[in-house]
Design brief:
- It is built from no helices and ten strands.
- It has one domain (20-109).
- 0% of the residues lie in helices and 40% in strands.
- By secondary structure, it is mostly beta strands.
- A hairpin with a 5-residue loop joins strand 3 (43-44) and strand 4.
- The radius of gyration is 15 Å and the shape is elongated.
- The strands form four sheets. Strands 7, 8, 9 and 10 form a four-stranded antiparallel beta sheet that branches. Strands 1-2 form a two-stranded antiparallel ribbon. Strands 3-4 form a two-stranded antiparallel sheet.
- Pfam families: YmaF (PF12788).
């Protein structure tokens, strides 16, 4: 069985891959949190594509943290046999506020 590495360009769907991301939350209550994430293996959708699930905590800042649970958008081909996913979600409310996290995760092998 051939394995796909981080620099391998693969057409089609690659099972059992995941994506990482490093981002910051929105500025709320005068501060931000860093969000370091690795999502679940792919969840196939009825249209033949896939999404990913993620949950975790943003980095402790300003005396507190926030939790999140979210699903990514569908795969977005970026060329050379790689794809990314868009995400857009809100954290839990703590200390009277919540934060928005949105962006695109790191590319992974597979064009679908």
């Amino acid at each position: 069985m051939k394995r796909a590495g981080k620099d391998d360009f693969v057409p089609g769907f690659v099972p059992n891959h995941n994506h990482g991301s490093v981002d910051y939350t929105s500025v709320d209550a005068g501060h931000v949190h860093q969000c370091l994430d690795v999502n679940s293996p792919p969840i196939q959708t009825q249209d033949g594509g896939h999404i990913h699930y993620t949950e975790g905590y943003v980095v402790y800042e300003d005396g507190h943290t926030h939790h999140y649970k979210a699903y990514s958008g569908p795969a977005i081909p970026v060329g050379n046999g790689m794809h990314v996913h868009h995400y857009d979600f809100y954290t839990t409310e703590n200390n009277g506020h919540r934060h928005r996290v949105r962006g695109v995760d790191q590319p992974a092998p597979g064009s679908k």
